[in-house]
């Protein structure tokens, strides 16, 4: 009976030295505390963002910064729930909580990211639908 083995490559990939899980954590920390410009700086100059998957892709830092501009001035926190990272790629499930006057929005997307050798995001695809978002009405104080 032939043995079944999974081939493994000993040749290093271009991203072997990158701690991809740490880059995901940096991204989420910047979502929580940074500006749209600071988030866009995490992306390569010609990066591609598709959020949500199926929407018109945004290509390049200016378009990506414009996408994140909606977070500027909001009280948002991002919490990593699960990450799977291999080489220069990661898939991760996280929760974003955004507190607005009178309501709190909670969203739990799954993102897929690819990073270049310098640790910049070259591609981000966010998997979510309206069912993955909840809106809680806050009581007046």
From TrEMBL:
Name of a matching Pfam family: SnoaL_2
Domain spans labelled SnoaL-like: 24-123
Gene Ontology molecular function, alphabetical: isomerase activity
SUPFAM superfamilies per the UniProt record, alphabetical: NTF2-like (SSF54427)
Coiled coil feature spans: none
The protein's name in its UniProt record: Delta(5)-3-ketosteroid isomerase
Keywords, sorted A to Z: Isomerase
Organism: Gordonia namibiensis NBRC 108229
